[in-house]
Amino acid sequence: MPDSSGTEGKRTAAGTGDAEGGTELKRVIGPGLLLLFIVGDILGTGVYALTGKVAAEVGGAVWLPFLLAFVVAMLTATSYLELVTKYPRAGGAAAYTNRAFGIHFLTFIVTFAVMCSGLTSASSASKAFAANLLSALDVDGDHARATMIIALAFMAGISLINLRGVGESVKTNVVLTIVEVTGLMIVIAIGAWAVLQGDGEFSRVGEFDTTGGETAFGAVTAATALAFFAMVGFEDSVNMAEETKDPVRIFPRMMLIGLTITGVVYVLVAIASVTLVAPSDLGEGETPLLKVVEAGAPGFPLDLFAWITMFAVSNSALINMLMASRLLYGMSRERALPAPLGRILPRRRTPWVAITFTTLLAFLLIGYADLGALGGTTSLLLLCVFAVVNVAVLVLRRDRVEHRHFRAPTALPVIGAVLCVYLAGPLAGRPADDYRIAGWLMLIGLALWACVWLANRMLGRRRNADRSAD
């Protein structure tokens, strides 16, 4: 809703998105392209790879965690919408945190958490790619060693593409989004056909599996904490604000529509999945939707669906590794991380040290954690970031601007912050591995921060000594 306070009735520079002194980027993204960017960024590894893991937590009611994750995402999205229409420039969570609190260390932690979420997401995409490739090639036997080798090779390939330099465009994203949506529509259509033919067991959608000793509430919250991984991605779109035509006007509508579309698709995919495959079987392995297609349409070419899945997760991995390496590079250039991370290849103009560092971290994550832990760690890191953003939007209410912008009802960011903190905490039944992986990643970040702090302190002493000598 528009903010009606003060002089904000003026649709001046913000009407074209130049509220803060203009932009150097070309505004080429209209409503349709922005919607496809948002939908394409959300869809991907989460639903393709983790539907089975969520089913293992709750049983047949696998659709409920996806629905609750959608609600939490929608609450947080209203905070992002207020901020991106109030400050229609690229920057995202780090920029909003810095503007709201002005604490350099907190800004660093938020930025590094976003970077680490990209690494865990890309690593989970690598494992999903490997599992689906083995299914497409119909490889029998123990897949653990082969999955590891393929996932590492895939990540190495992503790093080479990253080093060479990739010009991502939203028009390419249109093609990728169509492929991702096609795969999910196939699952939904097969599920609907099976129900109409009297096949499958639709009654499973109301069943809870609490055999692990948890209450239904505990099982649902634990599954929601994991399912939230499937909803992330909408926050990336705010970085397109400077390239969007009239972001103040079209961002709210397109983001809310995009989130709603993905939420509906996820719920329908979840219902189709448990209708055709028992939750216990769905939770085994790392290719749940392939099992659904095979059960509902035995004659469907499974290798084709496997390739669709690989295409979807490949896009997720590349985008996240690009984001992670560029974030490290940018933090280095701002002197928040060691200077070597800012070095670039002379000819390719790509940040080779940052790319190498993030790739090595991804290798460790692939070797150390399974798919469920990687997805859970991604959602944990972003839930913490989203909690900060939900608080930041309330703090920044005191900062007035001279243009109309979206204003979230105050209750929404408050509820969003509380839910994000709860889902990120141990009361939600989150596995210990999520905290262990996130903790090690944050320790690496703190070590880098300490290196910079010590270097700056030593440099300051040297300068003071030189001045004294003069």
The CATH architecture comes to Up-down Bundle
- What is the molecular shape? globular
Total E-strand runs = 0
**What portion of residues is helical?**
55-70%
SS-based class: mainly alpha
**CATH classification class:** Mainly Alpha
Roughly how many Å apart are the termini?
A: 61 Å
Task: Give Rg in angstroms.
Answer: 23 Å
What's the number of structural domains? 1
CATH topology: Amino acid/polyamine transporter I
Mean pLDDT: 81
CATH-assigned homologous superfamily: Amino acid/polyamine transporter I
Q: Sheet with the most strands?
A: none
Order of SSEs: HHHHHHHHHHHHHHHH
Number of helices: 16
Please mark out the parts with pLDDT under 50 across 5 or more consecutive residues, or reply none.
Answer: 4-25, 166-170
Oligomer: single chain
How much strand?
under 5%
